[in-house]
Write a structure and sequence with these properties.
305 residues, alpha/beta, seven-stranded mixed beta sheet, 12 helices, 11 strands
Length: 305
C-alpha cells in the first residue's frame, strides 16, 4: 500500500518546483524528499519529474497524477486541520537521540514532568546524525558534529575523559610512579590492574590511551559490562580501573566511593552539542529539553569544581 506522505511530498515538489522548496514547506530534509519521490516513482512505475538543473519539471504522467491527487489531498489536509482545532489540546511528540548513559544521568529524572510526548532513541552518533537529517529524530545530544547543511550544532557543555578506580586502588604507588618514572612505567603500572569496559563502546579508553601513550591499549579489559553506568557501580566495590566521562561519576568521587586516579599527562576533553534541523515544527519543545540539559550540566560543573 502506498504511503500517504509520498503523495504529500509529490504535491509539494509539484507546487514549489524544487526538492529544496518541498523540504522547506514540509519541514523535512532534502534527502527525505528525494526518498519519498523515488519510492513513489518505483510504486507507480514511471518517472514523475524531469530533473533540469535545479528545477523539477513534471512529466505528462506527473501532471495526470497531480490532477488526480491534488483535490483529495487538499480535502484530507482540511479535515486534519479541523480535527486539530476541535480537540481541546494537541500534544506534540518529539524524538530525541543520545547515548544511554547521558539519558540516565540527565533527562531521565525529568521525563514525567514534560508537557509533550517524548520518544528516546539510543544509537551510534553517525547513525543518529543521519536520522536527524532524514527527519526521524528532532534533536540529538552528541560530541560529534555532522556535515549536513540542514543541521544546526550548538555547543552547550564539555566533558573531560578521566581515569577512575575503586576506593581500594593503591593511588600512593601510582602517584610515586608518576613523580619518579617515565610514561612507559606509568603504562606498565596501569596494565597490572583489573580493567572494566563496555560491550559497545571502547572509544574513551582508546582516545585516552592514544593521547597519553601514543598508541592503542595492547590489553583487553577484564570485565565487560553493559554500559558506563554499570562500570561506575562495579567500581564502588573497591577495585579496578576505567576511563569514563567525568560527569558520570561526580557524585561517587565526591562521596569517596570512587577515586579520581589520573586526568592524564594531556587532558582529553569533548565538546557536547545539541543537534537539530534548521527547519522544525518543535522549536518550543526542543528549547525546553535544551533548558533541562543546561540546568543539569551547570549543576554538574559546579560540583566537579
Amino acid at each position: 500500500m502506498v504511503n500517504l506522505e509520498w503523495y504529500r511530498t509529490f504535491k509539494a515538489i509539484y507546487k514549489t518546483g524544487t526538492l529544496t522548496g518541498a523540504a522547506d514547506s514540509l519541514f523535512i530534509s532534502q534527502p527525505g524528499v528525494s526518498l519519498h519521490l523515488s519510492s513513489l516513482e518505483a510504486y507507480v512505475g514511471y518517472k514523475l519529474f524531469d530533473r533540469t538543473g535545479r528545477k523539477m519539471i513534471p512529466t505528462e504522467r506527473g501532471k495526470v497524477l497531480f490532477n488526480a491527487v491534488s483535490e483529495p489531498l487538499t480535502k484530507l489536509e482540511d479535515v486534519e486541520k479541523n480535527f486539530q482545532k476541535s480537540t481541546e489540546k494537541h500534544t506534540p511528540t518529539i524524538s530525541v537521540g543520545m547515548c544511554f548513559e547521558t539519558f540516565q544521568t540527565t533527562l531521565e529524572q525529568y521525563v514525567s514532568t514534560l508537557p509533550f510526548n517524548l520518544i528516546i532513541s539510543f544509537g551510534e552518533y553517525p547513525e543518529m546524525l543521519d536520522q536527524l537529517d532524514k527527519g526521524i529524530l528532532d534533536l540529538i545530544i552528541t560530541p560529534k558534529k555532522g556535515t549536513s547543511p540542514n543541521i544546526l550544532h550548538e555547543a552547550f557543555s564539555s566533558e573531560q575523559i578521566i581515569l577512575v578506580g575503586g576506593k581500594n586502588v593503591d593511588t600512593e604507588s601510582f602517584n610515586e610512579v608518576i613523580a619518579t618514572k617515565g610514561l612507559e612505567h606509568v603504562e606498565e603500572w596501569l596494565k597490572q590492574e583489573k580493567w572494566y569496559g563496555t560491550t559497545g563502546d571502547m572509544e574513551h579508553l582508546f582516545q585516552f590511551w592514544i593521547l597519553n601513550f601514543g598508541h592503542k591499549p595492547n590489553f583487553r579489559p577484564n570485565y565487560i559490562v553493559p554500559n558506563l553506568n554499570s562500570i561506575i557501580r562495579c567500581l564502588k566495590g573497591g577495585t579496578g580501573l576505567a576511563v569514563v566521562p567525568d560527569f558520570l561519576c561526580k557524585n561517587e568521587i565526591e562521596s569517596g566511593d570512587v577515586k579520581l586516579i589520573w586526568e592524564g599527562e594531556k587532558k582529553l576533553e569533548n565538546t557536547l552539542y545539541f543537534g537539530c534541523r534548521k527547519k522544525t515544527n518543535y522549536v518550543e519543545e526542543i528549547d525546553h529539553i535544551k533548558g533541562l540539559f543546561r540546568k543539569m550540566m551547570s549543576k554538574n560543573e559546579a560540583l566537579i569544581v
